[in-house]
Amino acid sequence: MMKRELFKTFFKVGAFTLGGGYAMIPIIESEVVEKHRWITKEEFIDLIAVAQSCPGVFAINISTFIGYKLNRVIGAICAALGAALPSFLIILLIALCFHQFMDIPWIAAMFRGIRPAVVALIAVPTFNLGQSAHLTLANCWIPIATALLIWLMGVNPIFIILAAGIGGYLYGMFLKPTE
User: Fold this and answer.
1) CA distances from 92 to 88, 98, 151, 174 (A)
2) Rounded average pLDDT over 74-101
3) I want to staple 59 with a disulfide (CB 3.0 to 4.6 A). Which of 21, 74, 106, 146 is the partner?
4) How far is CA 38 from CA 15, 48, 67, 116, in A?
5) What pLDDT shows up at residue 178?
6) What is the Cα Rg of the chain in Å?
7) Which whole-number Å values give the CA distances from 163 to 51, 166, 170, 171, in the listed order?
8) pLDDT for 26 beyond 70
9) What does pTM read for this prediction?
10) Which has the closest alpha carbon to 9: 81, 96, 90?
C-alpha cells in the first residue's frame, strides 16, 4: 500500500508544480511532512541538503531519498517514477506539438508571462529554507558571496560545494560552541 501512496503523492507533486524541483519544495513538504507525516520537518530539511548536494535532478533526488527511507529500494523507485513521469509525459506531449503552436502570439505571451511566476515559486521556498537553516544578518553573506563568486567570477560550483563541506566540517570540529 505504501508504494502506491508514494507513487500517487509524488505523481501529484510532479504533475501540478511549475518551476522545477525548488518550486516543489513547499508542496513536497506539505504532502510528506504535514499531510502524511512520513518524516519530520528536521528530517525534511536534512534531505533537502543531501538532495541539493547530489548530482542529478533535485525533485528526483528528494523523492528517491524519501521513498527509500519509507520503503527501501521499491519505495525509492515508486517515488522517483511518480516524480518524473508527469514531466516526461508533459514534455513528450509538448515536443510533439510545440513547433505548431509557438508562432501563435498569445501562446508565446503566455510562456513569457509564466516566467515571473516561476521566479516567485522558487524564491518563496528559498526564503523559507533560509529561515529554517537559521540564516541571519550575521551569516547571510555566505550565500550572497557564493552566488557572486559563481555569477561574476565564474567559479565552478563544485569548488563552492567542496569549500562549504570543508568549512562546515572545520566549523563543527573547532569553532561550534558545545551545547
Assistant:
1) 6, 10, 32, 52
2) 89
3) 21
4) 21, 15, 10, 32
5) 64
6) 19
7) 18, 5, 10, 12
8) yes
9) 0.62
10) 81
pLDDT digits (tens, 9 = 90+) for 139-148: 888 888 998 9
Contact between 13 and 89 (Cβ < 8 Å): no
CA atoms within 13 A on the CB side of 8: 6
Q: Which three cell numbers stand for residue 81?
A: 517514477
Average pLDDT over residues 119-124: 82
38-60 pLDDT per residue, tens: 999 999 999 998 998 888 888 89
Which pairs count as long-range contacts for 176-179, CB under 8 Å and 24+ apart, including other chains?
A: none
Can you tell me whether residue 74 is helix, strand or coil?
Answer: helix
Cell of 72: 527501501
